[in-house]
Write a structure and sequence with these properties.
With 194 residues, this protein is α+β, with helices and mostly antiparallel strands. It is built from 4 helices and 10 strands. A hairpin with a 5-residue loop joins strand 6 (111-116) and strand 7.
Length: 194
């Protein structure tokens, strides 16, 4: 009897924020958040103590409410500092992980504002590596009536207001490019037309 592998599918994950080498990584087997952090060569000393995990595609919808599920929070302090492996979450292919920088890096006047159909619209501290999707995760994720495919970013450049469009649906599915944010950006997630 002869067995051969005709096709091999690697598992893809992305990690951004306070890690040494953020980006997309392909892994050959089941991966935990600790494995992915190690692949990204660890967290930087200014990393925050929480990681956010966003699931790809239809897995984002909460079965209870029908809303897009709030990102899962992982206590990095317990995992990395205390070695509590109960916080070493097993990831699914397509997961996006965001690790914020600690508050000490934030400047009091460098904020971004998230409005519209997110669970917690508010002002958030701008941090290096912050993107449109990651700030929406920090804002609790998208509401059921959200249209993340029509997200806009209002930005001031040279005393002129510009409007940037980003399709966060495509970003979540791994087919779009997330938009890095600048201090003062205003992100708006509109309501769905349907």
């Amino acid at each position: 009897m002869h067995i051969s592998v005709k096709e091999y599918h690697s598992l893809t994950y992305s990690i951004s924020g306070a890690v040494r080498i953020p980006g997309k990584y392909e892994m050959k087997s089941t991966t935990t958040i600790l494995d992915l952090i190690a692949k990204a060569e660890g967290v930087v000393s200014e990393s925050g103590k929480i990681a956010y995990i966003m699931r790809e595609g239809s897995q984002l919808r909460s079965e209870k409410s029908g809303n897009i599920a709030e990102p899962r929070r992982v206590n990095l302090k317990k995992l990395l500092d205390e070695g509590d492996m109960s916080h070493n979450v097993v990831l699914e292919s397509g997961d996006s992980i965001y690790i914020p920088f600690s508050k000490m890096l934030n400047q009091s006047d460098s904020k971004v504002y998230v409005s519209g159909k997110v669970e917690k619209p508010a002002l958030y501290d701008h941090q290096p590596g912050l993107t449109a999707l990651s700030v929406c995760l920090m804002a609790g994720g998208f509401a059921k009536s959200a249209a993340p495919n029509r997200t806009t970013i209002v930005r001031m450049e040279n005393e002129e207001q510009i409007i940037l469009k980003v399709d966060l649906d495509e970003v979540v599915k791994g087919r779009g490019v997330d938009m890095p944010l600048q201090p003062g950006d205003r992100i708006h997630v509109p309501e769905s037309w349907f």
